[in-house]
Amino acid sequence: MQRVVTASVDKTARVWNADGSGAPVVLRGHEDKVESAVFSADGQRVVTASGDRTARVWPISARTLQQSLRAATTDCLSPEMRRTYLDESDEDARKGYESCERSYGRTPFYPEVDPP
């Protein structure tokens, strides 16, 4: 079954069945709005990032917090290597992207500036 995850200003993330059936799984625990949420590569966990400066890992089946990372602002968050970054501004996003790429031993690339 396909699922969709949403982030909300009510400090939660919700995992919905894509076909609209059933009630969503509500992930509670952040102290500020949830700004982003992504599935892990295996689809069994959700990683959320919040204005409370934490990133959290939630196993969907357990509906409870697995791990909390403090002071998360511009760090790389890429459970599926899709280049999703936690950021607060365009400048933070750029710095976060560059830091993440370098942490994997790669050179940052800007297609609009550095065409192949």
UniProtKB/TrEMBL annotation:
Cited InterPro entries: WD40/YVTN_repeat-like_dom_sf (IPR015943), WD40_repeat_dom_sf (IPR036322), WD40_rpt (IPR001680)
Lineage start: Bacteria, Pseudomonadati, Myxococcota, Polyangia, Polyangiales
Pfam families: WD40
SUPFAM superfamilies linked: WD40 repeat-like (SSF50978)
Protein name: Uncharacterized protein
Organism: Sorangium cellulosum
Biased composition annotated in UniProt, kind: Basic and acidic residues: 87-104
WD repeat residue numbers: 27-68
Residue segments, region Disordered: 87-116
Transmembrane segments: none
Alphabetized UniProt keyword annotations: WD repeat
Superkingdom, natural source: Bacteria
Matches recorded under PROSITE patterns: WD_REPEATS_2, WD_REPEATS_REGION
